Amino acid sequence: MTFIMGIVTMIRLTRNMPKKLTDATLYSTPVYCIDSMGKGQGNEMTAPGISNAEFMTVMKRMAAMEEKLMAMAVKPDALSEKEEILQAATSRVDSLEHELAATKKVSTSAYWTRFSLWHNP
User: Fold this and answer.
1) 8 A C-beta contact, residue 50 and residue 21
2) For residues 41-69, average pLDDT
3) CA dihedral for 76, 82, 86, 87, sign (positive or negative)
4) d(CA 27, CA 9)
């Protein structure tokens, strides 16, 4: 199911991509540049498919995504600290439950001792 959702997502993403961006990616190989040059053009290169402003926008978004990825990579350390705190709290609760059970046992035995002394003169 995850694999199918991944394929559907990729299809949706590529359908919504701007045409300029996909042309720049497809035709950026040197083979295309050589094939597209006419005899009268000489060694001139064709214009890129995206502008510098669009390129800078994409690069800024990539940098932001890399920062988020790095933050997510660091997060497991914070999560392990929380797990340690949770483990310490759980062990403390367990020890308190054992102390409470021991106190209840002593209290019950003291109650029955008093009860037997009071009812048996």
Assistant:
1) yes
2) 79
3) positive
4) 24
